[in-house]
Amino acid sequence: MGIVKRIRSRYHYSFVLLRQMVITDFKLRYQGSVLGYVWSLLRPLFLFIILYFVFVKFMRIGADMPHFPVYLLLGIVVWNFFAEITSTCIDSIVKQSDIIRKLNFPKYVIILATAVSALINLLLNSVIIVVFMVLNHVDFSLGILWTPLFVLEIFVFALSVGFILSALFVRLRDINYILAVVMQALFYSTPIIYPLSMVSEKWPVIAKLLLLNPVGQAIQDIRYLAITPQTQTLNGLVHHWYITAIPYTIVVVCLIVAILLFKKRSPYFAEEV
Question: Is residue 200 scored above 70 in pLDDT?
Fold first, then answer.
């Protein structure tokens, strides 16, 4: 209990500040909007409808994949979760420049607040996914209980990238434009709008390489557990533990780099923003 009390007392101010920043972010994000929080549900739904008609109805992609509409929707929602954290974290330090210059507080709370807001949006969007699963007669299994672990993997990876990018963006503003190009490339190289089987049938090596990306690997694992066991995963394509461990190693390395870089750069934010 002594350790718990010390941790609580040491980070109490950070927890209070984090809670207030998350609440403020949600209030400001939809301030003046008629639909308010409903937009957090409608945006991925609209994107899903567009992609569904273009790729499923017209191009007949995913016709052999069971419950492909839900398969597609889940991929879009989880990808948006990763993209929201990285894209909003990158300039979050600069946007809070006035507060940083005036107050002395843990700067990492700014990044955490942005990531937690995205996590709340994901939880709201999960309601839509569950509704679609019921309407599409997806069989629920106990395996779905493991999906939060892969959501945590994406959260930690996105948060780590957010810490790195936000620390670098204070000095290098061009990173914002580079990120936009990289994210677009990652979106199409990640099996979101198409089944991975389309790639593995012709280029099995390429399919394995695509799943070394932690986001792609986690999305496929979530689909496997929540929607259909016909989903191809890295564990199913590769039978060597040291290869299947690569995505998790990338996450851990990014987290360590993020902690070291942000800790080194944060004392100078007030002077540079």
Answer: yes
